[in-house]
Write a structure and sequence with these properties.
The complex is a heterodimer of chains A (245) and B (254). Chain A is α/β, with parallel strands linked by helices. Chain A contains seven helices and ten strands. In chain A, the strands form two sheets. A six-stranded mixed beta sheet of chain A has the order 6-7-8-3-9-10, with helices on both faces. Classes of the chains: A alpha/beta (245), B mainly alpha (254).
Chain lengths: 245, 254
């Protein structure tokens, strides 16, 4: 449903960040994009969701070019993207508000979404008073509340401690298995990519391009982390990036 | 909230005590009539609090300063918001601000007095002018320092320029605007004293100048203490407003 065809993007200085990146994401699929820090992963997500336009190449959603942010696509920005001056529930309901949904209705949906992600009773709190894990749950709630058909995530779990990170990775997998919303997840963690991506793309080089691609048939099992094929894929992925990064 | 109020009252009381002691020492060692002992001046001040005359002057001053601050904020904050948020508006208006900012606005007082007359309008206008610049420049810089991730956040949810203005730039700029307003209370009261020192027979500034002319230094200190109390009240009012409107600022690191 989402396609990027040979997209290229340059810095203002004219130097390319991304060159000739192509990817596809099918219904019912998830895609993990791994790359070293500063390689252009965030830029790639900005291009996919229409926050930025490629200098050449095309991004297509169901065959139609993406020209700007679209309610069918939700993005979770790095550092959660929550507005510190809005309460938790207002943050979650903001997208609905911008679409003109009446207050009562949007707050009801936001409350339900927060409950689904396991944070109730913090509705009126400021984001600044939440822990990193709670903020991330709120950000996920905000992304899902508008019933997007597609989710984009920028290093969603990278600033969390190991235990919270694993918990939230499970939460995401949970929500995915219930809603089957396909997503693109950008990360620098190979383990995270293997746990959360049905397919894995490796970005490398300067400017960055797709250097390798892995199929991950074991994806979707909550206990995947304990299985041998999980370890085997992480190992293969590591060997591949050792040569590339 | 109650304990916060109690703590504030306690700290104000302590400061008054320490300042009173210093004043006593200074007054005793100088032995000049221009600095009467604090108990004498304080006693006269407390007695004045029971007179309508004092409150008429206090009210006249309070209206001028308060209205000046209110108008300064109402005019300068939206302008700063627009200038900080729109490159085009800033390119248009920025040079005017840049070139007129260093001009001491108080020198325009004679012009304002002639144009607006000797009444309150000119007095309030000069406060608006002086404080307005502070609010304008601080707000504009505050809007510019907003992290782009918040703008991207709203854009990613489908927000347009107006949404960015209302949901991001406005709330992000409020603390900056209020800080300028709060810090501006000192300047406002100082300017107030200056504009009340002539061409009027009302206000605490007039009381001070009038008592000075009569060499009634105890009465002069009634005016001085009155202005101090008024300054503190305006500062606290601005502070309270800021805490109310920007409650999220106290919620943590970001």
């Amino acid at each position: 449903m989402l396609e990027a065809l040979g997209i290229r993007k340059a810095y203002r200085s004219g130097e390319d960040i991304l060159s000739d990146v192509s990817l596809t994401l099918a219904e019912n699929e998830t895609l993990a994009v791994v790359g070293p820090s500063g390689c252009g992963k965030t830029t790639l997500l900005y291009l996919l969701c229409g926050l930025a336009r490629p200098d050449s190449g095309r991004v297509l959603l169901d065959g139609a070019p993406v020209v700007g942010p679209n309610p069918d696509m939700s993005i979770i920005l790095q550092d959660y993207g929550l507005l510190p001056w809005k309460s938790v529930i207002e943050n979650v309901a903001l997208g609905l508000k911008l679409r003109g949904m009446p207050q009562f209705e949007r707050l009801k949906l936001a409350r339900e979404q927060l409950a689904e992600l396991g944070i109730s009773g913090r509705d009126r709190d400021w984001p600044g008073r939440l822990s990193g894990g709670e903020k991330q749950r709120v950000a996920i709630a905000r992304a899902f509340v508008g019933r997007p058909r597609l989710l984009l995530m920028d290093e969603p779990f990278s600033s969390l401690d190991a235990l919270t990170r694993e918990k939230l990775q499970h939460t995401l997998l949970d929500v995915w298995s219930r809603r089957r919303v396909p997503y693109v997840l950008v990360t620098h963690s190979l383990e995270e990519a293997v746990f959360l991506g049905r397919r894995i793309l490796v970005l490398a080089g300067r400017p960055a391009g797709v250097a390798a691609s892995f199929d991950n048939p074991g994806f979707g099992d909550g206990r995947y982390r304990e299985r041998d094929d999980y370890f085997e894929l992480v190992r293969r992925l590591r060997r591949s990036v050792e040569d590339l990064w | 909230m109650v304990s916060g109020l109690a703590r504030k009252a306690l700290s104000y009381g302590l400061v008054v005590l320490v300042l009173g002691l210093l004043w006593q020492v200074l007054s005793a060692s100088l032995g000049s009539a221009v600095l009467p002992p604090p108990l004498e001046a304080g006693g006269a001040f407390l007695r004045a609090l029971g007179t309508t005359e004092f409150w008429c002057h206090f009210w006249a001053s309070f209206v001028r300063a308060g209205l000046g601050m209110l108008l300064a904020f109402a005019l300068a904050f939206p302008l700063g918001l627009v200038m900080g948020g729109s490159r085009r508006a800033d390119a248009l208006l920025g040079p005017f601000v840049l070139l007129t900012y260093p001009v001491p606005k108080i020198v325009l007082l004679p012009v304002l007095l002639v144009l607006l007359g000797l009444g309150d309008a000119a007095k309030i206008a000069i406060i608006v002018l002086i404080l307005g610049y502070q609010v304008l420049v601080t707000t504009r810089d505050g809007v510019r320092s907003v992290h782009p991730k918040y703008v991207d956040s709203v854009r990613s949810l489908g927000g347009g320029r107006l949404d960015i203005l209302l949901e991001v730039l406005l709330p992000a700029a409020l603390p900056h605007g209020f800080t300028a307003l709060r810090l501006g209370t000192g300047v406002s009261v100082a300017v107030l004293f200056f504009v009340e020192s002539f061409a009027t027979t009302s206000g605490l500034g007039y009381c001070i100048m009038d008592a000075w002319g009569r060499m009634d230094y105890v009465a002069m200190f009634t005016g001085i203490l009155g202005m101090s109390v008024m300054g503190a009240a305006l500062y606290e009012a601005a502070d309270l407003l800021e805490r109310r409107v920007c409650a999220w600022m106290r919620a943590g690191r970001r």
